[in-house]
Every structure is written in structure tokens, then in C-alpha cells.
Amino acid sequence: MDSIGSPEIPRRAFMATMAGGLVAAPLVAVAQPPRTPSRIGVLASRSPEAPGPSEGLRQGLRELGHVDGQNVAIAWRWARLDEKKFPELAADLVRLGVDVIVAANNAAVEAARRATRTIPIVMVLAEDPVASGFVTSLARPGGNITGFSIQWAELFGKRLQLLKEAAPQVSRVAVLWDPAFGTGHWLIRETKGAAPKTLGVRLQLVEVRRSDELEDRFAQMTRERAG
Known about the structure:
The protein is of the alpha/beta class. Helices cover 37% and strands 20% of the residues. The chain has eight helices and eight strands, in the order βααβαβαβαββαβαβα.
């Protein structure tokens, strides 16, 4: 995992530092104090009931002296695993006038980027932000986007290589994936690109869109003799 424009540090602390620092900046940039509290907009991919993301951000901000409901206000916008909602949610945060947008993944970053070129955007976890057009380079991102990236492309060939080393007899590998997931098509493309480089491996792509389909999909893998 890489932090854009900075040494690698723990993700929660970095995200909170970026969000906290960006909302604090206007306090010294103008003669008149801005509204209190400053606003952090969050484009979250899951739901408010899901454990982890919301409390992690709040805790990281508290450690930096930014307390939700006191000197900062967090405006949550939840996609509930439907990434088609991100453009509307991002536009809503821009209308709200937030000071910074924290974006959960590539789909959220893209929606925020299209919604504003002036409000700072912090990527929580973006796949290859340079290739995605979010930043100019990892060292000098430019524009209004910064945060964390993960470079997955080089991992696909290694995973198949390790699989062949652990189970040399395997020649057919099933890949379970959700076409509705924003980065799913990118992951499949990279996996298909890596497969020919690993001798004797063929991919069996198995789509699943709902949890109640899983049992049938695993039965499909068995019928088609996935290794």
C-alpha cells in the first residue's frame, strides 16, 4: 500500500491526518473565522450498520484533536454497496459545502472528482490512481486529490504462481466475482492477463451478484471441474 506524496504510515492515522489537516487549513488562511465546526464529507461504500469504517475515522480524528460534533462535523453518505449512488451522494456533499471529502474507493473518488475540482479529496483505498487519472504521479499528485493507493496488478501473476507451486496439478482455476462491483472488471482483466504467463492455468469466471447465489455458484464450479 502506498500513501500519495508521503512516506508509508498507518492508514487510519494518515486518512485522519489528511482530513483533519485539510479542514483545519482554512482557520489560518482567512482573517474572519469560518463556520464552526468544519465539515468532513465521507463517501462510504457500505452501510452505517457495517462495523469498522465510521468508528475508525472518528477515532483517528480524535487522536489528532478533532472531535465529531465539537470542532468538526462528519457528514456521512452511504452507498450501501450500490456504487451507482456515488455521483448523487458526491453532488450532495458539494452542495452541503464540506471542507474535504473522504472517498472510500475508486468509484467514490471518481464521483467526487467529477463533482468538484476545488474541494480536497482524500482517497481511502484507490486502485492505481495514476492509471485511473486521479493523480499525475504518486510522488506529485497535483490537483485536489491525495490519499492512499494499492497497486494490485503485479500481484495477480504472483498469486497464480504460488497456487501452481502449492498445487502443481491444478490447471483450471475458478474466479468468483461480482460484475456490479466497481473494480470487478478491472480485477478480472488483470487476472486474465496474468493467467497465460502461468503455464497450464485456465480461468473459469463465475459471476455472483447476491449472497443467496453462492451455493449454486460453488456447485457450478464443481460441475465444471475447477481445480
